Amino acid sequence: MAPAQLLRPTPSSAAGRHALVVADGDVPARDALDAAWPGWDADVFDVVAADGGYTRALGLGLRPDLLVGDFDSLPADELAAAAADGVALLRAEVAKDESDAELALLAAVRRGATRITVLGAFGGPRLDHALANLWLLAHPALAGVEVVLLDGAARARLLGAPDAVGAPVTQLLPGPVGALVTLLPFGGDALGVTTRGLRYPLHGETLRTGPARGLSNVRETPEAAVALAAGQLLIVEGAHARARARDAPATVWRRRGLDSAP
User: Fold this and answer.
1) What Å distances lie between residue 18 and 84, 154, 213, CA to CA?
2) Rounded-to-integer distance, Cα 83 and Cα 157, Å
3) What is the pLDDT of residues 46-56, one digit of tens each?
């Protein structure tokens, strides 16, 4: 497999129609989101809340345009208030194949979103919900839509390759120097992985399912990037720089030739 070349970023939908989906996991305060991810709510045209995510959206000063779900997590008085405020309601059965967050994502796409930021995908009392939300990044209906999951500490997205003409795909990774960047193969091995601006570089290498080799890399320049020749790569970026001294153990492990830092 030829190495993926880091030339130009692959064209994306970043300039398209930006929707917010608010799920019912942990949602930071607005000032924490602003500090971690400046511009996270820029150019939003649509806000879709998933069940109890309606309350969390209101806490951010957002008025949802659409409320989706079986409404088992939303008090009846809040549901009535949403309806009275003119929020469109899309009620689902309690016994269903999809999660409320999934239904909200699908609704956002039907309403024209080409870029979606998801809040409330992590945290909460159930690990399975957080994992399912990560797996939604690979939903077939989201092909061609730029989707990121945000909280106050991390940003997660999925990079897939090759593109429609069989070429590698490049993802820019802007952010603070010293912040962690983790690259994990998703759904199989990730082939031809090449990085730029990360402390532990990869040059056309394969990240195999199972080993934690892609864990805890470190951004060395404000405009880091990763390219992928084939497969899928889960990218998790930390919002804040870590102190250099705390990164020392990772450096020692890398020099010993082990696959990953502890």
Assistant:
1) 26, 19, 33
2) 33
3) 999 999 999 99
